[in-house]
Design goal:
Largest sheet of chain A: 6 strands, mixed
CATH architecture of the largest domain in chain A: 3-Layer(aba) Sandwich
Number of domains of chain A: 2
Distance between the termini of chain A: 31 Å
Oligomer: homodimer
Strand content of chain A: 25-35%
Strand order of the largest sheet of chain A: 2-1-3-8-7-6
Structural class of chain A: alpha/beta
Helix content of chain A: 25-40%
C-alpha cells in the first residue's frame, strides 16, 4: 500500500482581496476537503495578487510538479478578471471565444431578459484548447486546460463547479483521519505522541491545542490512507492517554 | 510618490491541518491587515505541509524576494513542530537553545507550578543567530532570524506576537482603501469601472459581487497608497454609478 501512487494537487488562489486581508479565504478549505474525497491530496497552496506575470509563474511552477492544479478567482466580467489571459500566457496559447461557452451565456442571459454585453462575453473567453467546467449556479462556466482547473472565486460558485467535477478526476485512496482529544497540555504528551506515531506504520499524528470551557487540552488527528491503520493507532493512543491519567475521548473534544 | 519604495512581505503558512481542510486558516487575513498597518504589502502566501524540505524551499524562495518573510505554525512542543529545525536548515545554521527563551519558559512554568520537561524545552530552540519575539499570551516566544519572523499557528497567539512587533518594522505608506457599493451586476458596470480606474493614476479598483436580501450587486474597492487619490476615485465612481442609474452607496453595501 505504501508504494501506490499518491495523487497530488496544488491550488493557486488569485486575488488582491485575500492578500489585503479584506476577504477571508474560504476556498482553500473547501478545495482541500473536496480533493480528499477524490483521493487527491492538496499539497501546496499559493496566494498571488492580480498580476498576470505572478499568476503565470505560479501556474507554471505548480502544474508540472502536481497531478492537478486548481485556481480560484478572477474569471468574472470586469477589468480585474485576468485569470484566463494569464493562464493562456502561461501555456503560450492565445485566448479564444469558446462557442459552447458563448451559447451557455446567451441562454443564461436570454432566459433572464438581460443583454449579453461585451463585458459579459468576456466570460466566454478561454485559452485555446481548453474545455469547460459546468457552473450550475450562475451560468458562466469554469475552464479546464490540460491539468489546470480554473474555478470562480466566489465560494458557492466554486463549490458548484467542484460538484460538477466530482468523480471525474483520477485519484487514489482518500486520506482518512481519526481524532482523539484529551484534556492534556500538548507538552505533557509529546513523548507519548511521538512513540505512538513511531509504533504505527503509515500514519501521521498532528497535535492541535485548544482552550475550551476553562480547560486546556489538545486534539490529536491521526491521518492515513489506510483506515484500519488510522483506527488502530487511534485506539492505541486513547489507551495510552488513559493509562497516563488523562481524560481522553474518541472523536475529539 | 509612485517612485517610493514599496515594502513587501511574504507569508508561509505551515500545516497539514490547513491543507487537509480540517482547519480554516485565519492567519492570512490577520497578517495581511497587520502588515498593511505597518506600511508593508503582503505580496504572496504559500501554504506548505509539515515537511522540512518543503518548508525550507518555500522560506528560501521567498525570503530573498521580499523585504520580510513571516511564517505561522509548527513551533509548539510536539513531534510535528518542525518549523525551527526546517528554517535553521534553510539558513544552513545549527539549532541552539536560546538562553533567554529558556529563562522565559522557566519563569512561565515555575509561576504555574508546572515542570519544565524536555518537550517544553523544545520551545526554547532557535536557529543560531536568532532573536526572540515576545509572546504575551502563552510564554513560548516567537523567533526572528534575519528578515524571517517565525510566529505561532494558533491565531490568538500569532496575534499577540504581531502586537509585540507593532511599530518595529520599517515600512512605507499603508495602502488605504475606499469602498463603494452598488446594486448593479458587475457586468453592467465593467466598462464604467475600467474607465474610472484608467482616469485615476495610482489606484486599483477591485470588483466583488454579492447577493444580499434578494438583490444582486457588487462592492468596488479602490486601493491606493495615496488616500486623496483613493477618495477622489471613490467620489468619481459614486457619481458615475449614480449618473448611470444605479443605487450606489459610499462605504459599500
Amino acid at each position: 500500500m505504501q508504494s501506490q501512487k499518491v495523487w497530488t494537487a496544488a491550488l493557486v488562489v488569485i486575488g488582491d482581496e485575500i492578500l489585503s486581508g479584506r476577504t477571508q479565504d474560504k476556498n482553500i478549505a473547501q478545495v482541500a476537503v473536496w480533493l480528499n474525497d477524490q483521493g487527491i491530496r492538496l499539497a501546496e497552496v499559493r496566494v498571488v495578487p492580480d498580476d498576470p506575470r505572478r499568476i503565470a509563474d505560479a501556474v507554471n511552477a505548480l502544474r508540472v510538479t502536481h497531478d492537478y492544479l486548481f485556481t480560484t478567482g478572477g474569471i468574472g466580467p470586469t477589468h480585474d478578471d485576468i485569470t484566463v489571459d494569464s493562464i493562456a500566457a502561461a501555456f503560450g496559447v492565445p485566448v479564444i471565444e469558446h462557442p459552447e461557452a458563448r451559447r451557455i451565456l446567451e441562454d443564461y442571459y436570454a432566459g433572464r431578459g438581460i443583454a449579453l454585453t461585451e463585458s459579459r462575453l468576456r466570460m466566454a473567453r478561454v485559452p485555446q484548447g481548453a474545455e469547460l467546467i459546468a457552473n450550475p449556479s450562475s451560468g458562466a462556466p469554469g475552464v479546464k486546460i490540460a491539468n489546470v482547473y480554473i474555478l470562480a472565486g466566489v465560494p458557492h460558485i466554486a463549490a458548484s463547479m467542484l460538484e460538477a467535477l466530482t468523480g471525474t478526476l483520477e485519484g487514489g485512496r482518500p486520506m482518512v483521519s481519526v481524532t482523539v482529544g484529551a484534556f492534556s497540555a500538548e507538552s505533557d504528551v509529546a513523548d507519548l505522541l511521538r512513540a505512538t506515531e513511531a509504533a504505527h506504520a503509515g500514519v501521521a499524528i498532528g497535535s492541535y491545542p485548544f482552550f475550551k470551557d476553562g480547560r486546556y487540552g489538545a486534539n490529536f488527528v491521526i491521518r492515513s490512507e489506510d483506515s484500519e491503520a488510522a483506527r488502530g493507532c487511534g485506539d492505541d493512543l486513547l489507551h495510552k492517554l488513559a493509562a497516563a491519567g488523562f481524560e481522553a475521548r474518541d472523536g475529539g473534544i
